[in-house]
Specification:
The structure holds two protein chains of two kinds. By secondary structure, chain A is mainly alpha-helical. Chain A contains 15 helices and no strands. The chains are: A mainly alpha, B mainly alpha.
């Protein structure tokens, strides 16, 4: 089968597709070192004629809010991921291992709400958060996203296959359920936890709609929302847009390189459904 | 016996204890909103300090059918789904198949292809807006190659704005689905291909008789996620049009019109809720149809 494929042709497709994928990123990175004039009149040249760090210096030190947005994004995505890891694992464990009335029904409800499109939750959640007085706070971004039903499902599947003799041994050693979970089971679930962790972080870091709806003070914007203000504040300052975009991508690329295998693991779960 | 009973009771308490955060968030931010949303869709909402509801039966729903902008949004959203879902699914499958055909540097290609999946819609849309702008590289190339006589304002021209979003989103979601397909392809037992080779099957026959049928569950998943995602298209349409859905409603999608009626226009939050319910119903029906078609076609 393999020899019949014209090999060269396949590589041409692969390289062409890689170039199409890379071009916008390379363009943004190089443009972030160009002055505004060069970007809008520069035509096709990718490399900057007079590379400058001005765009970065400007948005990071002189823009009143940009640095806040970076911190906000880190806080919301970081703390949100932390809560997800703990809450999803606890729920997944309970659904897999603990006997309590209504467990099966609860599991079915969780499976059902995975399919509910987010759009129908936005308006009522706006009103609920208004009543709770948490609009325009980080809580509006973190609380509703503090658990993720898909990853609860994933954790349940993981714990169902988890060898129960490990837990029994821990209980013989005198640990109660709670201690067993935190000291024995949770550490052994590392791979599943890392997988959900990277995807939850990615989703929170890149989220646009929720900050748009629930945050109104510019100093509390996340990076994704803040980037948009370069559009109206300065009639689209492309140089700042590019530098800001590059800054917003860097932490994710870093995460991707360090935790690469967990990114790829997530897909087997997805494909299994 | 006694300790067993005590244990059981303890386990019930522990069970609920472990579920508390999930139960709270499920209740307050998911189940309550579903009910609330249905309730809102039958009311007129006034937000003055507090919230006031006026029950107006089906008026929001009947108004939706008479609203020309809703029809425009519906047309745009359907056009978007009908183009994007099949193209991105087929491209994802083809690229995964090529990647899985024993080529070298598979990991390098995979790593590069994955980049758009990592990047926020906010940053990507802004970058594409420049690439597709009147001074941007795309226009430069097309004019220099003589394909275009003069540059096209892709973002601000009625006939191109939605297409631009389509191109961008196909570009940015193919890698995600490609990775899912790749995992699916690697799960097909090689013995199936070996047996087919012995029977003298050619590579096209193997593709249609072994690969595609074995990928039906994965394709179902990809179609489902694609349909749900495409029907909800919002970020790119909002950013490209600055929230207006323009030019001439060309980028007005259902999610965008829901946003506008809920948060930009005063007093139409109930109406927006009715539109959100209609969108949920459309997504549900479309998913069921896609599922059924995919199953019948392949068996």
């Amino acid at each position: 089968m393999r020899k019949k494929w014209p090999r060269m042709f396949l590589y041409v497709i692969l390289v062409a597709y890689a170039l199409i994928t890379l071009y916008p990123f390379l363009w943004a990175v190089f443009a972030s070192f160009k002055p505004y004039q060069e970007i809008v009149t520069g035509g096709l040249t990718l490399l900057p004629k007079n590379p400058t760090l001005d765009n970065y210096v400007q948005i990071l030190t002189r823009d009143e809010n940009f640095f806040n947005w970076v911190i906000n994004s880190f806080f919301v995505a970081g703390f949100g991921t932390f809560l997800n890891i703990i809450f999803n694992s606890m729920a997944g464990y309970a659904l897999a291992r603990l006997q309590f009335p209504g467990r099966h029904k609860l599991f079915l409800v969780i499976l059902a709400v995975i399919m509910v499109p987010g759009q129908i939750l936005l308006i009522p959640n706006f009103l609920i958060m208004r009543t709770l007085g948490i609009l325009d706070t980080y809580a509006a971004l973190i609380l509703p996203s503090a658990v993720n039903f898909s990853y609860i499902f994933m954790m349940r599947q993981f714990f169902i296959n988890f060898p129960s003799d490990v837990e029994e041994a821990a209980q013989v050693d005198g640990l109660n359920r709670f201690q067993t979970f935190w000291k024995v089971v949770f550490p052994m679930a590392q791979a599943s936890i890392a997988t959900q962790g990277v995807f939850v972080f990615l989703a929170l870091w890149n989220e646009f709609l929720k900050p748009l709806l629930y945050i109104s003070s510019p100093e509390r914007f996340t990076l994704t929302l803040g980037l948009q203000t370069f559009q109206d504040r300065y009639a689209t300052q492309w140089n700042y847009v590019m530098a800001g975009s590059v800054i917003s991508i860097i932490p994710i690329i870093f995460l991707y390189i360090v935790l690469n295998r967990y990114f790829m693991q997530g897909f087997r779960v997805g494909g299994d459904k | 016996m006694k300790s067993h009973k005590k244990n059981k009771k303890g386990e019930i308490i522990q069970g609920y204890g472990f579920m508390i955060p999930t139960l709270l968030i499920l209740g307050i931010f998911t189940l309550l909103p579903i009910g609330y949303s249905i309730f809102l869709s039958f009311t007129r909402v006034n937000l003055f300090g507090g919230v006031e509801f006026q029950f107006i039966q089906l008026e929001n729903y009947t108004n939706a059918f008479a609203d020309e902008r809703v029809w425009a949004a519906l047309r745009n959203t359907f056009e978007y789904v009908i183009f994007v879902v099949p193209i991105q699914t087929i491209l994802a499958l083809v690229m995964a198949y090529i990647l899985n055909s024993g080529i070298k540097f598979q990991k390098t290609f995979r790593t590069i292809y994955f980049l758009p999946t990592l990047t926020s819609s906010s940053a990507l849309t802004m970058i594409f807006m420049f690439l597709f702008s009147i001074n941007g590289p795309l226009n430069n190339v097309l004019v220099n190659l003589g394909i275009l006589e003069s540059p096209i304002n892709f973002i601000n021209e009625t006939s191109f704005a939605l297409r631009t979003i389509m191109v961008m989103n196909i570009w940015s979601t193919v890698p995600f689905f490609m990775t899912i397909y790749l995992a699916g392809l690697q799960d097909i037992p090689p013995a199936l291909y070996e047996a087919a080779s012995l029977d003298g099957a050619n590579s096209l026959q193997k593709l249609t008789k072994i690969t595609v049928p074995n990928l039906v569950p994965v394709t179902n998943y990809v179609l489902l996620m694609g349909i749900i995602g495409c029907f909800q298209i919002f970020d790119q349409a909002y950013i490209i049009s600055g929230g207006s859905g323009g030019p001439n409603n060309a980028t007005l999608t259902l999610s965008l019109i829901i946003y506008q009626y809920a948060f930009q226009v005063m007093g139409t939050m109930g109406y927006a809720s009715a539109l959100a319910i209609l969108l949920a119903i459309i997504i549900f029906v479309a998913s069921m149809i896609a599922r059924k078609l995919n199953r019948e076609e392949r068996i």
